[in-house]
């Protein structure tokens, strides 16, 4: 009978334990399978997005290298030299440089230079890895080809990228099809005149192999199509690149996967992903016109768009889930067996526990040892409120010996103000069952033997013993906790103060349809023109959007990536005022609230207004730039007219006058010969004026070429040349060493030549002529000077010194055009500097000039 009762209890305990465990196991396994299914799908999606982005980066990197090569060849020094000189030696160096380039860069099938009439000047073909120069008789005129005309229309430092085309080897389309992309760049000579174009034929198969390598390491299949859906790279290349032939290439992405998939990929979004019944499709659009160099402002002009498409079939997705399901079922079976065994073991020990309860009474010694090792102070108090038992931690905390407390009232351990409500009085809690944290919710302190107090918390529990009901009191010293609470409260107060004083709106809201507010700071109240925090909390965030579509898009973005940063949206206040706002939000999750958004709102209306103003200013600047370009074109035309049309009659006057003097001088009297000489001198004077005006015009239009210029060397060279022209003159000159600047060497040479020529000319009457060139530092500025001891000039007329045709001396005494100093002033101003002069009549002149050293060195 006793055996049957034990067996019945064992079965009862076993079922009570086993059934909940098995149900919990089934629920956990089901949740794990669902979680893995979601995680597996998310991993596949992330992997395919990564594959598409890797393909995009591979194309951008490859085309960045190719673009650099095309621009490098367009600015090749040997090409520039040949364009400037046109001699055969320069042409030979050009072909050698191209052969060396093609031999070292096996990326290209051929390289060509075509002049601006479309005629091939040189063509080097890379046949089977060996560069070969094409004979001149085989060169063709390709002006009618599309890539030639589009490239010639480009500006400097721009390139044109052609669509994929088949490779032509020895006049025949190579088989199998080898895709080729032309990279062509316009070529300008040293005078910035268009002279032709450089063309590189890139072997597109190299890019295809790189994309196939990316496809091999991903779950899905990676393909590349153009904007008509034709395959440039197909996982199974049945129709790959066939669109380049009318008789081939009927296969495309739309025919393979259907119109619905192609419509999804063809939409305006640059990147997308869609799980369709036919599989997972991920795409990234690559607009070749937007591929930019990160370190320059070069443009690539082409309208073609490529689309990288990654495809994962439903079979692959299902296979990965099925394998995990089989593994999970095996684990579930093993765990079921273990849980059944565990339930039997626990049921067995439950029965053993009942038999062991009788032995608990004999463990009093063990209980005392446990009592002494406890980290809290523990008291056993009888019904009279006297201490029956205590541990050593009580002695340590309160400063009493055990003999001083046992048998004494427990009330001496607390201040008198807590005696009436203290838990040591049994009648206050003995009717309640279970442990009570009596000090919870109230301030409670203990009193030491020396009278000092410290915060405590007491948990009490009635204990039935042979001596009657005792109270077990566990006392905890909560001094550290109280200090932590005070510190936390201070931190919270500082945080709240910081939050309330922030100049931006801070909010917490729910991701429901309305966007209900949970918390806001005072700036939000001011920002939305509410009368109080309560009034604003009564509204939802969704009410403040001017366009609900903006909120839907923003919510979708936050839910997709977990955050948004600095999103610009149009909001309105409670009074209806609209403004632009910068919105930053982060998605978070709480066990109580669930999913919620924390974010900040900043009024950026002023910034947007500034952006609009800047855009307007840029438009005005662009308009003014166009006007300036038109004026420059007119100046070019005027310079051409002056240079060619006005020179012809002057040459005729001079030539016919010289002929009359040479051939008919004996038939003219002295007065007639004098008149002809005057005509010749006037014509020559007019030619000099035209040359000076053209030089002044070129200085104005010339674009600065910044480089390191040695003014000391230039000055010595010019003065040596002046001395050679007049070897009989004795002029002493000194040039300070180390005058190094940055600027345009040609323009600075013109400037020094004019100033030094003037110093040489106006010191001609001084038998001890002296010319000095040097530099002083004044208030941190470099001030350069050119000083002479010539005739000088009256400072009253100094304001006319740098004007065109302004002269302060008799032209018969000191000849000149009156344009030299105007040219000098324009050169100095073009370098961001200033020029002025100081002079005394018959004591010489000093010309000072500066260059904007800070601005120059920033270049």
TrEMBL record:
Top-level lineage group: Bacteria
InterPro entries on file: BphY/WalK/GraS-like (IPR050351), HATPase_C_sf (IPR036890), HATPase_dom (IPR003594), His_kinase_dom (IPR005467), HisK_dim/P_dom (IPR003661), HisK_dim/P_sf (IPR036097), PAS (IPR000014), PAS-assoc_C (IPR000700)
Keyword Calcium on entry: no
Limits of the PAC domain: 440-490
CDD domains: HisKA, PAS
A molecular function (GO) term: phosphorelay sensor kinase activity
Cellular localisation: Cell inner membrane
GO cellular component, one term: plasma membrane
Protein name: histidine kinase
EC number: 2.7.13.3
Domain Histidine kinase: 641-855
One GO term of the biological process aspect: osmosensory signaling via phosphorelay pathway
Organism: Nitrosomonas communis
Domain PAS per the UniProt entry, residue ranges: 363-419
Main location: membrane
Reaction equation(s) it catalyzes: ATP + protein L-histidine = ADP + protein N-phospho-L-histidine
Membrane topology: Multi-pass membrane protein
Classification lineage: Bacteria, Pseudomonadati, Pseudomonadota, Betaproteobacteria, Nitrosomonadales
UniProt entry keywords in alphabetical sequence: ATP-binding, Cell membrane, Kinase, Membrane, Nucleotide-binding, Phosphoprotein, Transferase, Transmembrane, Transmembrane helix, Two-component regulatory system
Transmembrane segments: 12-33, 328-351
């Amino acid at each position: 009978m006793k055996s049957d009762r034990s067996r019945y209890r064992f079965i009862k305990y076993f079922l009570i334990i086993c059934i909940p465990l098995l149900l919990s196991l089934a629920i956990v396994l089901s949740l794990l399978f669902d979680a893995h299914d979601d995680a597996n799908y998310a991993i596949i999606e992330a992997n395919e997005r990564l594959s598409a982005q890797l393909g995009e980066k591979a194309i951008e990197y490859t085309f960045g290298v190719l673009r650099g090569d095309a621009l490098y060849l367009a600015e090749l020094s040997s090409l520039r030299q040949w364009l400037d000189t046109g001699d055969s030696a320069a042409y030979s160096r050009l072909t050698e440089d191209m052969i060396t380039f093609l031999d070292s860069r096996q990326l290209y099938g051929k390289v060509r230079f075509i002049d601006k009439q479309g005629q091939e000047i040189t063509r080097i073909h890379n046949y089977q890895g060996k560069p070969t120069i094409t004979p001149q008789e085989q060169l063709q005129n390709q002006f009618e080809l599309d890539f030639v005309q589009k490239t010639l229309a480009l500006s400097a430092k721009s390139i044109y990228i052609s669509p994929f085309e088949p490779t032509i080897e020895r006049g025949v389309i190579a088989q199998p099809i080898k895709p080729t992309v032309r990279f062509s760049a316009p070529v300008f000579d040293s005078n910035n005149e268009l002279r032709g174009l450089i063309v590189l034929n890139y072997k597109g198969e190299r890019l295809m192999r790189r994309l196939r390598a990316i496809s091999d390491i991903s779950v899905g299949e990676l393909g590349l199509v153009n904007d008509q859906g034709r395959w440039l790279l197909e996982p199974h290349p049945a129709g790959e690149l066939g669109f380049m032939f009318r008789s081939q290439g009927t296969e495309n992405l739309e025919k393979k996967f259907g119109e619905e998939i192609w419509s999804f990929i063809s939409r305006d979004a640059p990147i997308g992903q869609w799980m369709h019944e036919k599989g997972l499709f991920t795409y990234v659009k690559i607009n070749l016109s937007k591929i930019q160099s990160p370190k320059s402002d070069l443009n690539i002009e082409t309208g073609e768009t490529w689309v990288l498409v990654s495809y994962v079939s439903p079979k692959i997705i299902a296979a990965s889930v099925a394998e995990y399901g089989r593994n999970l079922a095996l684990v579930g079976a093993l765990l079921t067996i273990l849980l059944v065994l565990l339930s039997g073991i626990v049921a067995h020990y439950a029965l053993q526990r009942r038999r062991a309860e009788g032995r608990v009474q004999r463990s009093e010694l063990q209980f005392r040892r446990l009592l002494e090792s406890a980290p809290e102070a523990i008291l056993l108090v009888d019904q009279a409120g006297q201490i029956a038992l205590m541990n050593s931690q009580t002695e340590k905390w309160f400063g009493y010996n055990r003999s001083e407390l046992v048998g004494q009232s427990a009330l001496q351990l607390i201040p008198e103000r807590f005696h009436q409500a203290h838990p040591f009085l049994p009648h206050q809690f003995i009717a309640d069952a279970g442990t009570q944290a009596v000090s919870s919710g109230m301030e409670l302190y203990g009193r030491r033997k020396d009278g000092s107090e410290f915060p405590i918390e007491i948990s009490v529990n009635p204990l039935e013993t042979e001596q009657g009901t005792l109270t077990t009191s566990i006392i905890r010293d909560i001094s550290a906790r109280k200090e932590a609470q005070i510190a936390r409260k201070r931190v919270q107060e500082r945080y709240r103060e910081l939050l309330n004083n922030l100049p931006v709106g801070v909010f917490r809201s729910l991701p429901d349809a309305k966007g209900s507010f949970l918390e806001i700071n005072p700036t939000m109240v001011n920002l939305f023109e509410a009368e109080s925090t309560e009034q604003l909390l009564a509204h939802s965030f969704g009410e403040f959007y001017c366009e609900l579509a903006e909120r839907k898009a923003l919510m979708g973005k936050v839910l997709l990536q977990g955050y948004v940063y600095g999103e610009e949206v149009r909001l309105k206040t409670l009074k209806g005022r609209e403004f632009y706002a910068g919105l930053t939000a982060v998605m978070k999750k709480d066990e109580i609230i669930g999913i919620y958004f924390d974010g900040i709102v900043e009024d950026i209306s002023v910034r947007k207004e500034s952006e609009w103003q800047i855009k307007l200013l840029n438009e005005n600047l662009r308009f003014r730039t166009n006007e300036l370009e038109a004026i420059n074109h007119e100046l070019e035309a005027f310079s051409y007219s002056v240079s060619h049309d006005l020179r012809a009659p002057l040459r005729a006057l001079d030539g016919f006058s010289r002929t009359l003097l040479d051939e008919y001088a004996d038939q003219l009297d002295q007065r007639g010969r004098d008149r002809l000489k005057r005509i010749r001198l006037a014509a020559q004077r007019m030619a000099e004026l035209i040359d000076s005006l053209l030089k002044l015009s070129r200085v104005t239009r010339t674009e600065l070429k910044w480089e390191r210029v040695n003014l000391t060397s230039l000055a010595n060279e010019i003065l040596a040349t002046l001395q050679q022209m007049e070897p009989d003159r004795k002029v002493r000159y000194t040039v300070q060493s180390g005058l190094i600047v940055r600027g345009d060497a040609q323009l600075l040479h013109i400037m020094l030549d004019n100033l030094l020529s003037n110093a040489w000319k106006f010191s001609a009457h001084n038998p001890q002529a002296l010319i000095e060139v040097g530099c002083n530092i004044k208030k941190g500025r470099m001030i350069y000077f050119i000083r002479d001891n010539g005739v000088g000039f009256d400072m009253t007329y100094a304001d006319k010194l740098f004007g065109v045709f302004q002269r302060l001396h008799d032209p018969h005494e000191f000849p000149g055009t009156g344009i030299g100093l105007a040219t000098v002033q324009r050169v100095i101003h073009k370098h961001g500097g200033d020029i002025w002069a100081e002079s005394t009549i018959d004591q010489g002149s000093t010309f000072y000039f500066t260059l904007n050293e800070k601005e120059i060195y920033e270049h």
